[in-house]
Specification:
Radius of gyration of chain B: 22 Å
Order of helices and strands of chain B: HHEHEHEHEEEEHHHHEHEEHHHEH
Strand content of chain A: under 5%
Shape of chain A: globular
Largest interface: A-B, 81 and 78 residues
Shape of chain B: globular
Largest sheet of chain B: 6 strands, mixed
Order of helices and strands of chain A: HHHHHHHHHHHHHHHHHHHHHHHHH
Helix content of chain A: over 70%
Distance between the termini of chain B: 44 Å
Strand content of chain B: 5-15%
Oligomer: heterodimer
Largest sheet of chain A: none
Chain lengths: 582, 403
């Protein structure tokens, strides 16, 4: 038992002086070698051109010219404001809806229905959900077709600015409906660790209403575990490109879209402007997170007052139904959008205001099917290997940290979240240069490493909170029964965290599947995947092709999340107590 | 610091063999060298029918020349440029990832100026170049008013053509003033892609040509004074037109694909494309109603060519030349012009072809919505590249920043 005590940080605080060695130190070292170097290269690749250094284009003098040019870009203030608002509003709305729903419906049948819906909702790629939403709500979209002309009187679509609205409402809506499933999934993975049931029972016994019981007794613990995923949502939503292109304003567009336009301008001198924009994007994401932290502080103060007030908030029927309705609306929109895409993928010509296409045809699927064989294999291979590698590395690092009693490793690994904060195209330029210098680009290994840079943060994000939340006394008891540290890892931690691990793997898999630019640039086009095909085809604007390839693209993560839900249940079907509440 | 790092790596892995650039004058040697090579052809992959055409070409060059052709489907050629720039920056002067790239004028000019293209003229020395119509299609020699100098091989022709749905519109407006008149009577039924999208910018250039006091000046580089004078009527026209556009000009479609969708969805009545056969092939693919027809402005319309280029560090240069030469052959060009395949107009002088090859073109059915070559009207040249840059900047300042 002595050894066990020494290896446990909470109990052996004074023993910090002689920190135990572990062969697992290899994990953090490998992570640093494999991931930190690419991140540094990527960041330098984004930062140096911003300060006027890009010798290949004849820029050799450090200067602030590109920042001045950035400040002088027409409408740049509006672009910045749009990105900031989209980032914060998306996160606030998604958080309110998910927490409201979990508070109001945890443990009910409705909750179980949504738990089953999580895989399809999460699997739909952002772009596909945005396309689906656009086609539902646009003036020539499905909703208007259903009402025209008998109810609306419109023979032609009305000239209403619903999609691409200047304030970005459609874009924010598109982001909210896609971030809700992500946050819900994170909450599902975290719930078993916070012992929601006993807390709720106690609060209910004290007379608190259902929602208040959750908010007061479970949310504080749950929120601690959701913080990193929330930061990821903020960063994602304020730098999103695809959803912004499909639903967002165009005069001017949000910052990330404009960076992409500068970056892809044939005038190569605009690349330094794009790089300056990338740094601004970075600062913006950071600022948005700071605003969130301020809000968090405020809410905590108000919450503490409310708790102390002693109100039981028993009449919460309205709130409960509102939460259920908004959650259903969000899920319904994604599913309806998906159904519309399915219909488009088999439609021949489909005119306004027809509610149904002229004829149904399998032509689109035939042409998609003819080209997707190899890309499907590549996608499975790359996503499978990169997500597995990411999970193994993350588990190794976490176990190392647990055994040696430090938290520095994961703190240091926060640096790895940086790639999520910079626009991909700017970041990838430096990463590509590194791998090209190493003569690695075009190799499968390089593609997997590049994917790892983007997959690992999400895997660690999804895994580290449940890991740290696992009650250390399980390990203590096992050690006291004479089991080795390895046995604790294999027999206790892995099975108890199997759901979280499976979720993290599936999430990493889904992230890898969705990566377009790293696959194309680092793979030098030698490793086409379902996504590179889908993105290339969607640039043509044929809605039917876009729909079909988006459905294919959605299928793979769906498969992944489905497995993630199934495997732990099958492996440990006799350990009923491990099941998550709900 | 990156440069030092890159240089160190470059030294460490310095290429041992420094291959000679193949000389197309000695074509047999090029074909022999090309045998067994794999050509990575980076080409926009947005249209299934174009991808199928390239797949057909891949089968042919494999069988005839033993060259493996792989299309790298990209959404935006800028990503290819990024890749080449990164390779140059990392000191990779050989064995680059891109062997052949389908390129437009702006990207060509950028790559040429940055020295990122195969440095010696090769395209004009390909055997099939003798069929190219230099006389009748002068844009095969200049891209964006910059001479191609044999650094890219002409692949297809583009001409701005307008489309309208005859089921909704009888007499489409055939000049910019007429378009404005028509928009007053039909507000919200016209728009154009947002510059700097190339089709949107082409619309601006077309309007500039029709409205400028002296279109000849547009051939010269723009300066502050000529730009202000020549574009004054254009911006007056746009100021009047924008409130009458789709969504009152507060939002614009981002590219041609979206614009075509607006016509299909009955949100607008008139669209335009840079490929005269586009409506025909879109009708064939159920993307547009079969009542769509095309017309060209009375004053003529902007025309140019699109090309294939080889980067300075291409790995399979000989193979890339063999592919470019095949894609320029009468057989490949005739197939490409078929609207059921792609519908992209040929760069060749059809009248001057050998009889059997001419017959391939004569046999083509150009499709219901495509005007025959003699009705395509006058071809207006591209203005000097400096006009476009200034137009895009001024457009962004006036209309792109929100009200």
């Amino acid at each position: 038992m002595g050894a066990a005590l020494r290896s446990w940080p909470i109990i052996s605080a004074p023993k910090k002086l002689e920190r135990p060695q572990s062969r697992l130190v290899a994990f953090p070292i490998v992570i640093l070698a494999l991931l930190v170097l690419p991140v540094i290269a990527g960041l330098l690749g984004a930062a140096l051109p911003a300060f006027g250094y890009l010798p290949v284009l004849g820029l050799e003098d450090f200067s602030l010219k590109s920042f001045i040019a950035l400040l002088g870009a027409p409408g740049i203030g509006v672009s910045l404001a749009l990105s900031l608002c989209a980032g914060l509003c998306t996160t606030i709305l998604a958080f309110l809806v998910v927490m409201g729903f979990v508070a109001a419906w945890h443990g009910t049948r409705v909750f179980r229905v949504f738990r089953r819906l999580i895989a399809p909702l999460l699997s739909v790629p952002h772009a596909a959900a945005a396309f689906g939403l656009a086609f539902l709500i646009a003036p020539s979209g499905l909703l208007m077709r259903a009402l025209s002309p008998w109810a609306s009187g419109f023979e032609r679509p009305p000239d209403w600015l619903i999609v691409h609205d200047p304030t970005g409402l459609a874009m924010t809506a598109g982001l909210v409906v896609k971030e809700i499933p992500f946050l819900f999934l994170m909450a599902l993975a975290a719930l078993p660790q916070v012992e929601a049931e006993p807390r709720l029972k106690m609060a209910r016994a004290l007379g608190y209403g259902r929602v208040a019981a959750f908010l007061f007794s479970v949310l504080p613990a749950l929120y601690a575990q959701l913080r990193l995923p929330i930061f990821a949502i903020i960063a994602y939503a304020c730098s999103v490109v695809d959803v912004a292109l499909i639903l967002g304003p165009t005069t001017p567009a949000p910052l990330a879209v404009r960076i992409l336009q500068w970056q892809s301008d044939p005038d190569l001198s605009l690349r330094s402007l794009a790089a300056a924009g990338a740094l601004a994007q970075f600062a913006l994401a950071f600022f948005a997170i700071c605003v969130w932290l301020a809000l968090e502080w405020l809410v905590a103060r108000v919450g503490a007052k409310l708790m102390a007030s002693g109100h039981r908030f028993r009449r919460d029927g309205f709130v409960r139904h509102l939460a259920g309705a908004t959650m259903s609306l969000a899920g319904g929109l994604v599913l309806a959008g998906l159904a519309t895409l399915a219909l488009w993928s088999i439609a021949s010509f489909w005119a306004f205001p027809d509610i149904w296409p002229n004829a149904l045809t399998l032509d689109t699927w035939r042409s998609v099917g003819a080209t997707l064989g190899g890309p499907l294999d590549n996608a499975l291979l790359i996503a499978g290997l990169s997500s597995l590698l990411a999970v193994v590395l993350a588990l190794g690092a976490l176990e190392y940290e647990t055994r040696t009693g430090g938290t520095t490793t994961t703190r240091m690994l926060v640096a790895l979240y940086l790639p999520l904060l910079v626009p991909q195209i700017a970041f990838l330029f430096g990463l590509d240069m590194l791998l090209v210098s190493l003569r690695l680009d075009g190799w499968l290994l390089a593609v997997i490493l590049a994917h790892l840079v983007f997959v690992f943060p999400y895997v660690l994000l999804s895994l580290s909170q449940p890991w740290h939340a696992l009650d250390p006394r399980y390990a203590l008891i096992a050690r006291s029964l004479g089991r080795s540290a390895d046995a604790v890892f294999w027999k206790i931690r892995l099975p108890m965290l199997s759901r979280a691990i499976a979720t993290a793997t599936a999430l990493g898999f889904a992230v890898s599947i969705s990566l377009y630019l790293p696959t194309l640039l680092i793979g030098a086009g030698r490793w086409p995947t379902v996504t590179t095909e889908a993105v290339a085809l969607s640039s043509g604007g044929d809605r039917r092709i876009t729909a079909a390839t988006a459905l294919v693209q959605a299928f793979l993560p769906f498969f992944g999340f489905g497995l993630a839900a199934l495997v732990p249940a099958l492996l440990f079907r006799r350990r009923a107590a491990m099941r998550a509440g709900g | 610091m990156l440069r030092i790092l890159a240089a160190a790596f470059a030294l460490l892995f310095a290429a041992t063999a420094h291959a000679e650039t193949p000389a197309p004058e000695n074509w047999d040697a090029v074909v022999a060298e090309a045998k067994g090579e794999t050509v990575y052809f980076h080409a926009w992959g947005g249209e299934a029918r174009i991808n199928s055409y390239i797949a057909w070409a891949a089968g042919e060059v494999k069988e005839r020349f033993g060259v493996t052709l792989k299309q790298v489907k990209v959404a935006d050629t800028a990503n290819v440029v990024s890749k080449i720039v990164a390779e140059k920056a990392a000191g990779r002067d050989e064995n680059g990832a891109v062997d052949l790239v389908w390129i437009n004028g702006e990207n060509f000019v950028s790559l040429k100026e940055a020295g990122l293209l195969l440095g010696r003229p090769w395209a004009t020395k390909l055997p099939n170049y003798r069929f190219v119509d230099e006389e009748g299609k002068p844009t095969v020699k200049t891209d964006f008013t910059v001479p191609t100098d044999g650094l890219e091989a002409p692949w297809g022709m583009a001409k701005l053509v307008f489309f309208y749905d005859t089921a909704r519109l009888e007499n489409p407006p055939k000049s910019m003033p007429a378009l404005l008149e028509w928009a007053r009577a039909n507000p919200g039924r016209f728009t154009y892609p947002q510059p700097p999208d190339f089709l949107g910018s082409t619309f601006l250039k077309q309007a500039l040509y029709e409205l400028a006091p002296d279109p000849q000046v547009l051939m010269q580089p723009a300066d502050d004074e000529t730009f202000a004078r020549q574009t004054k009527p254009l911006f007056t026209f746009l100021d009047d037109l924008h409130p009458l556009l789709w969504r009152q000009g507060r939002a614009f479609p981002q590219n041609y694909g979206t614009l075509r969708r607006l016509l299909a969805d009955n949100e607008v009545d008139i669209t335009f494309a840079f490929n005269p056969a586009d409506a025909s092939s879109a009708i064939a693919a159920h993307e547009l109603p079969d009542t769509v027809r095309s017309y060209v402005p009375e004053a003529g319309s902007i025309a140019n060519s699109h090309f294939l280029a080889i980067p300075f560090n291409a790995n399979a240069k000989a193979g890339a030349m063999v592919v470019a030469n095949f894609l320029m052959s009468p057989e490949a060009q005739a197939r490409k012009q078929d609207p059921n395949v792609w519908g992209d107009p040929t760069v060749l002088d059809v009248a001057g072809l050998p009889k059997a090859d001419r017959a391939r073109f004569d046999a083509l059915d150009l499709g219901v919505a495509t005007l025959p070559p003699e009705e395509l009207g006058k071809a207006l040249p591209e203005p000097h590249a400096s006009w476009m840059e200034r137009l895009e900047t001024e457009w962004a300042r006036r209309y792109g920043a929100g009200q």
